[in-house]
């Protein structure tokens, strides 16, 4: 073999390795039935992940990435609902009717954070980084948890809150300060 051949082949092999590693399936353990009482693995196939990657890759700025994150998280919950009983989950805590697969804000903040960490680990979040879930408390008894992201450039913090909507719907993405003040997608 000549060094010219090796010089041409090595970059191609490296590209194949990167493509193969990004095409692999990913498994995430999710929780449900309030307070992460039940847990189950969810596998995201390469075929399911590809359009999510494309949606995030198409973003041109942080605001567009937040909108894509909202939709991608909703899609990831829909995929999880194909493999677990979380397809039954309804927005909030009271519309579930006690069904197996119901989720409270603890379940949602845990799962959404896991989904976001998967996206971050693959390098698909260009403008944001994932932080630990955060709690807000109003009147000692009304606690609510959410997943958190921070915009890299401005350091502005946002919640990614999937609890408000039925399974598979896009998550709400709100500035942290608005969310801490009690705002929600239903209260503008």
General description of the model:
Helix content is 41%, strand content 23%. It has one domain (27-180). It has 188 residues and is α+β, with helices and mostly antiparallel strands. The longest helix is centred in the middle third of the chain and has 22 residues, at 62-83. Residues 9-21 have low confidence and may be disordered. It has a 4-stranded antiparallel β-sheet with strand order 3-4-5-6. A hairpin with a 5-residue loop joins strand 4 and strand 5 (157-161). The N and C termini lie far apart (67 Å). The radius of gyration is 19 Å and the shape is globular. Helix 2 (46-57) packs antiparallel against helix 3 (62-83). It has helices at residues 3-23, 46-57, 62-83, 105-121, 176-180; strands at residues 26-32, 38-44, 128-138, 142-151, 157-161, 172-175.
């Amino acid at each position: 073999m000549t060094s010219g051949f090796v010089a041409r082949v090595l970059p191609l092999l490296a590209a194949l390795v990167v493509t193969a590693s990004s095409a692999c399936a990913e498994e995430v353990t999710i929780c449900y039935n309030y307070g992460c009482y039940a847990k189950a693995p969810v596998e995201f196939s390469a075929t399911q992940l590809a359009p999510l990657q494309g949606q995030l890759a198409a973003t041109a700025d942080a605001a567009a990435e937040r909108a894509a994150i909202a939709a991608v998280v909703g899609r990831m919950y829909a995929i999880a609902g194909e493999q677990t009983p979380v397809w039954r989950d309804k927005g909030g805590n009271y519309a579930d009717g006690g069904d197996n697969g119901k989720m409270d804000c603890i379940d949602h903040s845990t799962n959404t954070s896991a989904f976001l960490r998967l996206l971050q680990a693959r390098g698909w979040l260009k403008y944001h980084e994932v932080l630990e879930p955060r709690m807000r408390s109003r009147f000692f008894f009304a606690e609510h948890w959410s997943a958190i992201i921070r915009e890299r450039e401005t350091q502005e913090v946002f919640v990614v809150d999937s609890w408000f909507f039925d399974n598979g719907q896009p998550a709400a993405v709100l500035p942290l300060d608005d969310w801490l003040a009690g705002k929600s997608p239903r209260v503008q």
